[in-house]
Each structure stands twice: as structure tokens, then as C-alpha cells.
Write a structure and sequence with these properties.
- This protein is an all-alpha fold and 85 residues long.
- The chain has two helices and no strands.
- The protein is elongated and about 65 Å long.
């Protein structure tokens, strides 16, 4: 996996309209699709872990969670009132 942006190797392209696409293009697309799928899986896993952590914290600190929720709702409503003017 490449982490730095480096110039891609030049790929010889067929003449316009020939309809032939080099195999390297398909290989690169497959590789990019695989990297995207892996990154999306890692992100979803991290989000699930974060949601579980927050849920555990909210269960063990119910009063603080309620206070934070009230403040969040109050701030949201204040923003909505300010935007509507």
C-alpha cells in the first residue's frame, strides 16, 4: 500500500477509438476498489467501537449525559432561532 503521493507509472494507451484498454488500468481499478472497501470497513469498525464506548459512558454517567444532551438541544435551538431571523 502506497502512503505517499507518487507519480503513477506511464501506461501506454491505445489510439483513440480503438476500444482497447490496457490490462494495467483494470488491475489498478481493482486495486483501488479493494483499498476503498478496506478503508470503509476500518471506518465503520471505528465508528461502531466509538458508539459502543459512548453508550457505555452514558450508562455509567446518566446525569452528566442528560445535562450534555440538554445543553446540546439548547444550543441547537438557539442556532435555529438565530438562522431564522
Amino acid at each position: 500500500m502506497r502512503h505517499t503521493s507518487a507519480a503513477e507509472p506511464a501506461i501506454e494507451q491505445a489510439a483513440e477509438g480503438a476500444g482497447a484498454v490496457p490490462v494495467e488500468v483494470f488491475n489498478r481499478m481493482t486495486q483501488l476498489e479493494q483499498q476503498l472497501a478496506e478503508a470503509q470497513a476500518r471506518l465503520e469498525h471505528r465508528r461502531a467501537v466509538d458508539r459502543a464506548r459512548v453508550a457505555r459512558w452514558r450508562e455509567s454517567h446518566p446525569d452528566e449525559a442528560k445535562r450534555q444532551n440538554r445543553e446540546s438541544v439548547r444550543a441547537y435551538r438557539a442556532r435555529q432561532r438565530g438562522a431564522g431571523s
